[in-house]
Design a protein that fits this description.
It is globular and about 60 Å long. Helix 2 runs parallel beside helix 3. By secondary structure, it is of the alpha/beta class. It starts with a helix and ends with a helix. It contains 13 helices and 8 strands.
Length: 250
C-alpha cells in the first residue's frame, strides 16, 4: 500500500467492525484496496485479529488496524500479527503524530520492538528477512478528528513518515458540537481548512464517501483515500432495502 500511495493511486478503504475473517475476505476479494480492522470502536478482539489480517492474503487489499490509542501495547501486537499498517485515532499535536510514526519504525529510526514471529509468514519472507524487506513498508494513517488537530494541522503535516490522513467527520463534528451536522458552518469551515492544508503538503487525504455523489465530490477536490463504508452499516443497509422491496409489493 505504501508504494501504491507513492505512485499516486486513489485507494478505496472500508472499515471492518465485525470480528469475522469471512467478511474481511469478502471485501478484499471484491476489490477493496485497504480494510481497517477496527479495535477502537469495533468488536474485534485479539482472537479474531490474526484471522482477519490473514484473510486479505492473495488479494491487493492492505490489512490495516485501527488501534484504540497511540500505545505500544496495541500497536506492536497488531504489526507482529501481520498488519500492513496502523490507523491512529485522536491525533491532536505534532508530538502525537511523531509518536505514532516512532511506534511503526524499528530502531534507530523508531522504537518498534522486534518480534515478527507471525508476521514474516503472512508476508512470505524469512524471519530475519522481515525487517529488511518489510520493515519500511508499514503504513501510518492518522485520523484527524479533534479541534486541537484542526488548530495544529500545519505542524502535524510537517512530521515526516505520515502516509495519509483521514478527516473523520463523525468525531470531528461531535467535538465541534454539531454531531452529524455536516452542513453546519463550524464543521464546513474546519473541514475546508483541513483539506486546504493537507492537500497543500501533498499528503494523501480521505474522508467518508458513503454515496456516489460524496465520492465524486471528494475525488474532484483531490482526495485519494476515500472510505466507502462500515461492514455493519452496509449489512444493515441491504436488509433495510430488501424490507422496502417487500413493503412496496404488499
Amino acid at each position: 500500500m505504501k508504494q501504491r500511495i507513492r505512485n499516486g493511486e486513489t485507494l478505496a478503504g472500508y472499515v471492518a467492525t465485525i470480528p469475522s475473517a469471512v467478511s474481511v475476505q469478502a471485501m478484499a476479494a471484491a476489490g477493496a484496496d485497504w480494510v481497517v480492522i477496527d479495535q477502537e470502536h469495533g468488536a474485534v478482539g485479539p482472537e479474531s485479529l490474526h484471522a482477519m489480517i490473514t484473510a486479505t492474503a492473495g488479494t491487493r487489499c492492505a490489512p490495516l488496524v485501527r488501534v484504540p490509542r497511540c500505545d505500544e501495547a496495541w500497536v506492536k501486537p497488531a504489526l507482529d500479527l501481520g498488519a500492513e499498517g496502523i490507523v491512529f485515532p485522536q491525533v491532536r499535536t505534532a508530538a502525537d503524530a511523531a509518536e505514532c510514526v516512532s511506534l511503526l519504525r524499528y530502531p534507530p529510526q523508531g522504537r518498534r520492538g522486534w518480534g515478527p514471529f507471525v508476521a514474516h509468514a503472512r508476508w512470505g519472507v524469512g524471519l530475519f528477512d522481515y525487517l529488511p524487506q518489510r520493515g519500511d513498508q508499514t503504513v501510518c494513517l492518522l485520523l484527524i478528528e479533534t479541534r486541537a488537530a484542526v488548530e495544529n494541522i500545519e505542524a502535524i503535516c510537517r512530521v515526516e513518515g505520515i502516509d495519509g490522513m483521514i478527516i473523520a467527520q463523525f468525531d470531528l463534528s461531535t467535538e465541534l458540537g454539531v454531531s452529524g451536522q455536516f452542513d453546519a458552518p463550524e464543521f464546513r469551515d474546519a473541514f475546508a481548512h483541513l483539506e486546504r492544508v493537507i492537500l497543500g503538503t501533498n499528503i494523501p487525504v480521505g474522508a467518508a464517501a458513503l454515496t456516489c455523489e460524496q465520492t465524486r465530490q471528494l475525488l474532484d477536490r483531490g482526495h485519494r483515500l476515500p472510505v466507502h463504508g462500515f461492514d455493519v452499516l452496509m449489512l444493515g443497509s441491504v436488509v433495510r432495502q430488501t424490507a422496502e422491496w417487500r413493503q412496496r409489493e404488499a
